[in-house]
Amino acid sequence: MSRPMRILLSLVLLLTHQGLSSQNCNSVRYLDEVFDGVDVLSGVQFAAADPYGVIGSQDLLLDLYMPTGDLLEKRPLIIYTFGGGFLIGTRFQPPVPQFCEHFARLGYVVASIDYRIGFNTASSESAERAVYRGVQDVRAAMRYLGQFSEGYGIDTTTIFLTGTSAGCFSALHSTFMEEGDRPASSYGILLEPADMGCANCSGNNYIDNRELRPKGIINNWGAMLDTIYIDPIAKDNVPVISFHGTDDLIVPYNTGSPFSYPVFPAVQGSAPIHQRLDHLGIMNQLVPLVGIGHEPWLTDATLLDTVYRYSTPFLYEIMRPHTSAIVGDDSVPQGETRTYSVTGQPGSQFCWTVSGGTIIADNGSSIDVLWNATGIWAMSVVEVSSIEVLGNEQTMEVEVVQPTAVPTMENGTSVLFPNPVSSMLHVSWNTTPSTGTLQLFDTQGRLLRTIPVADGQEGVVIDVTDIPNGIYVLRTAEANMRFAKTAY
Fold first, then answer.
1. Nearest 5°: phi and psi at 83?
2. DSSP 185
3. Same domain, 91 and 174
């Protein structure tokens, strides 16, 4: 199979290797249509496979929709599989181009793909084989786009599957059906004796026939042969948002045979899929279209907007980086510098804001702050992932206090540092205290600790981690020294 033609594509990707050119802390990419135009690369062959009822091989093609002028090096991918009951349909039937263009203007790369259609409508087993062909063809498309992801500017860790009706049958089964779940019919039936092979063994051999996993699914009135295919394992933790008419007579909202035709195998629609995902604790959302039938957006365009309105934030939440809380001291003496850090995704950038202090070093996920003014000040950080998705803002309050004055010993030979202290108090001198001991008291005069000092010893380090915050006195024969124990 030849490599794809890239004449048009080269114009789109001319500058993509600049990557994320700046920290776009206010990006609305993937939430709003930030691109005015869409470039379409049509008729790209991604696989060839044996079709139903015909001797020979069928070329499978896809159309790729990309945001015009996009400078991002890697973009999330949406793969759209058309509907038509596994009997009819094309990759460019309404509203497929409209859907693909919308999400491309949001910043996604979108592929509308072919898959093999046709089956014996008098055979339940033949219908099962049609679903399995769809599984194979979706996976072949994912392998192809994974193989050439660099040229198309695709992030292969962020792939979403969608489509309508039969297309969503293919998307759901491609994601959740394991090799052990293969229907017995896929190994051959009376009028279709051929073994169809494994789910990753058809169409092409890209990426060594490995399986790429989707990040999530937009299910538009699809169903599954059995929701038990969704296993309680990490691999199947794939979020799903489902749209389905409660009066759908073609693909049941609950459970039944498609078209209410008992020859077809019973399937489980969006309601049981939602229940299974809920039971397993997998992120999902069901949007019931109350009183509405099958493929409703063909007659009511507002329902296409409904799908946009719910699915757009759903996909964004899946992609959102989960930044850790800010780590660092929340009480600091004025004029001192502290380091603050978070943990995020590899390749992310970080947008920090600090009041009451100056960022003197920015190392991405960590900063050094010089605290200039006393008071309670706010600090925040927003993570910007490599595909320009914003994380949830993390915030922290820092109290900046007046530094405590430290009286020296009368003979000027002793120094305490740091002061205030959080855990370790350092005491140094030029002349060893005459008593050979240091005594630690609280403000009530209670002796908390006696610290021996050896002859010739030039200093000690006192661990005060276990004492409460407050004011304390360190006593020697020469002087009493006050110091503060704080939480910074």
1. -105, 170
2. G
3. yes
Q: CA-to-CA distance for 57 and 51, rounded, in angstroms?
A: 7
Element (H, E) at 106: helix 96-106
Lowest-confidence segment of 24-28, 146-150, 253-257 by average pLDDT: 24-28
Phi, psi torsion values for 454, nearest 5 degrees: -80, 155
d(CA 470, CA 486): 7
The last residue of a domain, from among 319, 339, 356: 319
Phi, psi of 465 (to 5 degrees): -60, -35
Q: What is the mean pLDDT of the chain?
A: 90
Kindly report, residue by residue over 321-373, the tens digit of the pLDDT.
999 999 999 999 888 899 999 999 999 999 999 999 999 999 999 999 999 99
Quote the CA–CA distance of 372 and 135 in Å, as a whole number: 61
d(CA 247, CA 258): 13
Question: For residue 404, what pLDDT is reported?
Answer: 57
Q: Who wins on pLDDT, 83 or 422?
A: 83
| DSSP code per residue over 190-231 | SS-------TTSSS--GGGGPPPPPSEEEEES--BS-GGGS-
Alpha-carbon dihedral angle through residues 42, 47, 50, 55, given to the nearest 10 degrees: 60
DSSP string for residues in 239-287? -EEEEEETT-SSS-SSEE-GGG-TTSPPEE-HHHHHHHHHHHT--EEEE
454 versus 260: which is more confidently predicted? 260
On the question of pLDDT at 75 being above 70, the answer is: yes
Give the domain extent around 216: 7-319
pLDDT of residue 8: 35
Count the domains in the chain: 3
In total, the chain counts a number of residues equal to: 488
Distance between CA atoms of 347 and 366, rounded to whole angstroms? 14
**CA dihedral (30, 31, 35, 36) positive or negative:** positive
Domain CATH for 440: 2.60.40.3080
Q: Is 213 left (phi over 0), alpha (psi -120 to 50) or beta?
A: beta
The CATH number of the domain holding residue 275 is 3.40.50.1820
Is 408 contained in some domain? no
Mean pLDDT value of segment 421-433? 74
In a domain, 407, yes or no: no
